[in-house]
Amino acid sequence: MNDSLKSINSFLREARLEAGNRDYAASLASAEKASPLLDTLSLDSTPSAKYHDAWGGYFQQKLKCLRQLQMTDALSATCHAVLDRFPIDEEDCANEHPITLQVARRALRQLATLALERRDADAAVEWMERCFALTASNDEVDDPFVSSYVLRAIVFLAGYRSEPDRYQIRFFESLDELTFKARKFPEIRIDDPELVAFLEDPAYLAYQASKPAEVLSKGGPGETWESALDRFRAFAEELQVAQQSPLADSDFEIEVWPVALSDLMTHEKNWDCMAPAALRELYLDHGSFKVQDEWGALTLYGHGEDGLRLFGGIVHMIDQLWGGRPEFDNDFSADEIAFLNANFFVFGQFCHDSNVYTHLFFDRDGRFGSVRYDQDEWGPMETALRHMIDGRQACFQSLDDLISEQMNAVIEYLIYLDDEARMEG
Question: Whole-model pTM?
Answer without folding.
Answer: 0.76
